[in-house]
Specification:
With about 850 residues, the protein is an alpha/beta fold. α9 crosses α10 (about 500-515).
């Protein structure tokens, strides 16, 4: 930058005209004073938006319908099939056929958007309707700001990554690596949309933006400026475990930037523990900032040793054996460096009374004040054990006495080995693993693979390959959003770069899994891919024609995918293959396997060496099998893998072996019998299967895609109306779907002629007064109506609106009493440039 400005100075000095040189130097000096720091990008590129279905009339701005918007015109006059157009910027008027023109709007010009119903799916009963809007997202955001300002819980967007691969368009022209302004265009494009997006969020609402390495740093700085007062957290998501075939590194990840309001408390919800993660959840931080047993977050924690587990198994489990994976053994004494000393938690310093003969913890004593010393005299055959470490430091137990006694009564406190050197005992306790875990900032989950659960899934849903480039894994999107709305069952979620509709699919899955009534609003344009556009042009199909629009992303991918996901069948009527995971853990019955070890015999396995060899073949700990007697049953809490096998060496002991399995083998899945596979084996197998109860396992719950989802979805296209015609009362029916959305999108989208005196749409949460004279009757009906939360009052008079509003039922919030059409028109006249609503 310094070098470039020095070059400018040199060029200015070369100007011979002294007056011109002085004027230019003055302007450059002003620019230097106004130099921006931080993220600097060009703001002057005017963003033009095509409105293909808008009516062309005299005075409107137009451009050529096909191709980049390089030249705009003002229509001077109209003929039947052509318009006489005056080039903006100067030039001769030219006649252009009407079917070659489209209306364009510059960024910031007032528009008056409405939504026009296209199609719908109704499978969700009374639940709020999801909404898909086919539109340029900037104009859609302007409408959504009027409808939903301050009401959205989560905005999730996956904008174009600006890779230079012609993956997005600015002013109807693809942006590629040859465009030296591509970063500035992308930043200006994003900034305009993010400014409105912020105003849509609730005070505790969260913005999530996914991005890769091409713009991640620019985006971070843009968000720092646009989302002031928000914390930024960046999550790395592994979406392609195999890696991309790029130079230098095989990239496996992308990023999700969370903009979280700085409220002084955690907004992000923890993730539920899946069945496959239970064994790995030990020591993870739970969503409330404490680990599973109440230990302060951040403290070091030692796991119980194998010897501790062995002693605990001998003492018996305080829970069913099949639930062993849900529990872990932890030390009863705090061992971390923080909040583990007596002076920090004096109420947790007390004796545990031990019965050495029975090897049990009998009870917890009373807390010892700080000014008293611990005592060690036995009482009534029990001895006191204090939380004092090997160095003599006074520590504390995990719980206060009352809680510790509750745990003792539940049988969850285990007295371990006696340490003669320290003249002390180890004490452990069983704690249930956390049902949810605090989310980490690196997500490596097979379910987030974009190939398997993105590309392959959408191909199965639509019944064709190459339907959409690089769709996200439905689980990656669901999990990203769930971090915000898992505990918000009535949340509103917005995605204004909807693409293939994965956000709606993931949110509907979340609702189906937990009974939520969350609402998703999708916005996407109907852009045709560059390859398809070329093919259409070759056969004479032009933008805006029905044949062209059918190939656009919204009509060809977003709507069909969302409809298919809800109905459970592809567009061709065939059921969707496969199942999806609900993220819930369920108990299932699993058949036990009984196998004949026909290659061995009791005689051959009399030596420890032979048994160790068999153990290696079966994947069992060698010493465990070598030291076994007539049979071996793996302990439920064995650390050796697998821990679900049993071996019977002496077939004559089948009855006793069966009894032992009934007592200690509820978790055993595979049973090996040392005998040939003959009729004797089959009788033994049948005896075991008929005697032993079903094996219960914990598994992730899955649902067939073909069952569909309980959801309602309405598909709209963004349209535009003449505000003068609206105020004259001729376009009320055009505005009605937007009022339905503002009031919560409940019930079927209503229709009206505009000649009604008032409306109470069935199943909806709003009413409309169209004629002031009908107010008494309207107000009587409103008092008796159930579920009406919004009232729209159509009147030309501000005074009449105030008078009517003051007489409405008190349960109607003042913010939900809306003056039409003035409120609508003023909003878009004032906020055309994206200003504060």
């Amino acid at each position: 930058m310094i070098h470039q400005m020095a070059l400018v100075d040199d060029l200015l000095n070369d100007i011979a005209d002294a007056e011109l040189r002085a004027r230019l130097q003055e302007q450059v000096a002003t620019l230097r004073k106004e130099k921006k720091f931080g993220l600097v990008f060009e703001q002057h590129h005017p963003e033009m938006l095509c409105i293909n279905d808008a009516r062309i009339h005299r005075g409107v701005r137009v451009a050529h319908r096909d191709g980049a918007i390089e030249q705009t015109y003002i229509v001077d006059s109209m003929r039947a099939t052509a318009a006489t157009c005056r080039p903006e910027g100067g030039g001769e008027n030219i006649a252009i056929p009407l079917d070659e023109l489209t209306v364009v709007k510059k960024f910031g010009e007032p528009v008056f958007p409405v939504i026009v119903p296209v199609d719908h799916v109704a499978r969700g009963g009374s639940a709020p309707h999801h909404v898909l809007i086919e539109a340029d997202n900037y104009h859609a955001l302007q409408l959504l700001e009027w409808l939903y300002a301050g009401r959205v819980d989560c905005i999730y967007i996956d904008p174009p990554y600006n890779t230079g691969a012609r993956d997005w368009r600015y002013n109807n022209d693809y942006v590629d690596l040859a465009d030296s302004w591509r970063h500035s265009k992308w930043l200006a494009f994003m900034q305009r949309r993010l400014q409105i997006a912020r105003r849509l969020l609730k005070p505790d609402g969260v913005l999530i933006v996914t991005i890769d390495e091409h713009e991640v740093h620019h985006l971070g700085m843009l968000l720092e400026d646009t989302m002031r007062g928000y914390l930024q957290e960046m999550v790395t998501v592994v979406i392609n475990p195999k890696g991309t075939g790029k130079l230098n590194f095989a990239r496996v990840n992308e990023h999700a930037i969370y903009c979280i309001p700085d409220l002084g408390f955690s907004v992000i919800a923890g993730a539920p523990t899946r069945a496959g993660q239970l064994a790995d959840a030990a020591g993870e931080e739970t969503e409330d900032g404490n680990d599973a047993d109440g230990e302060d977050a951040g403290e070091e924690e030692e796991a119980a040793t194998p010897d501790d587990l062995e002693v605990a198994a001998e003492a018996g489990l305080p829970f069913p054996a099949e639930e062993a994976s849900l529990w872990e053994l932890r030390h009863a004494r705090r061992r971390g460096g923080e909040s583990s000393y007596r002076h920090q938690r004096w109420r947790s310093f007390y004796p545990l009374w031990i019965d050495p003969e029975r090897r049990v913890v009998v009870r917890a004593g009373e807390s010892l004040p700080l000014d008293q010393e611990p005592y060690f005299e036995p009482q009534d055959g029990v001895v006191p054990l204090w939380p004092i470490d090997a160095e003599g430091n006074h520590r504390c137990w995990r719980y206060v006495p009352k809680s510790m006694n509750d745990v003792i009564d539940e049988g969850r406190v285990v007295l371990g080995r006696y340490n003669a050197a320290q003249r002390s005992w180890t004490v452990n306790l069983w704690v249930r693993k956390a049902a949810s875990r605090k989310l980490k900032t690196v997500w490596w989950d097979p379910a987030h693979d974009a190939g398997t659960h993105g590309t392959s899934l959408i191909n199965r849903i639509l019944g064709r390959r190459d339907a959409f480039p690089f769709p996200k894994s439905v689980y990656a999107v669901r999990d990203a959003i769930a971090a915000v709305v898992r505990n918000r069952p009535n949340a509103i979620v917005l995605d204004f770069f909807a693409g293939s509709g994965t956000t709606l699919h993931g949110l509907a899955m979340m609702n189906a899994a937990d009974g939520g009534r969350r609402q998703c609003i999708l916005v996407t344009n109907n852009e045709v891919s560059e390859r398809n556009a070329q093919s259409l042009r070759e056969v004479g199909v032009t933008p805006g024609s029905p044949e062209w629009e059918r190939e656009g992303i919204c009509q060809a991918v977003t709507w069909p995918r969302c409809k298919a996901a809800i109905e459970g069948k592809r567009p061709d009527g065939k059921p969707i293959d496969g199942e999806w995971s609900t993220d819930a853990i369920i108990r299932t019955e699993v058949p036990r396997t009984v196998r004949a070890l026909s290659f061995a015999s009791p005689e051959l396995l009399k030596t420890k060496a032979a048994r160790k060899a068999l153990a290696s073949a079966l994947g069992i700990g060698q010493n465990a099998l070598a030291d076994a007697g007539t049979w071996y049953i793996a302990p439920a809490d064995a650390r050796d893998r697998p821990k679900d096998q049993a071996v019977l060496f002496e077939t004559d002991a089948l009855d006793a072996f069966t009894s032992a399995l009934l007592a200690d083998g509820a978790h055993i899945r595979t049973i090996h019998l040392l005998m040939p596979e003959n009729s004797t084996f089959r009788r033994a197998r049948d005896q075991l299967r008929s005697t032993l109860p079903p094996l219960v396992k914990l598994a992730d719950q899955t649902v067939p895609f073909s069952e569909g989802l309980t959801a309602n979805l309405d598909y709209f296209r963004l349209g535009f109306i003449d505000p003068d015609a609206l105020e004259m009362g001729g376009r009320f029916s055009d505005l009605l779907p937007a009022l339905w959305m503002m009031a919560g999108a409940r019930g079927a989208v209503p229709v009206a002629t505009g000649s009604e005196s008032y409306l109470f749409p069935e199943g909806s949460a709003f009413a409309v007064l169209l004629r002031e004279a009908a107010f008494p009757e309207f107000n009587d009906k409103l008092a008796k109506a159930q579920g009406v939360e919004w009232v729209f009052i159509i009147t030309d008079s501000r005074e009449a609106f105030v008078e009517i509003s003051e007489q409405l039922a008190t349960h109607i919030s003042p913010r939900q009493r809306v003056h039409l059409y003035r409120n609508y028109i003023d909003n878009f006249q004032i906020n055309g440039g994206g200003g504060q609503s």
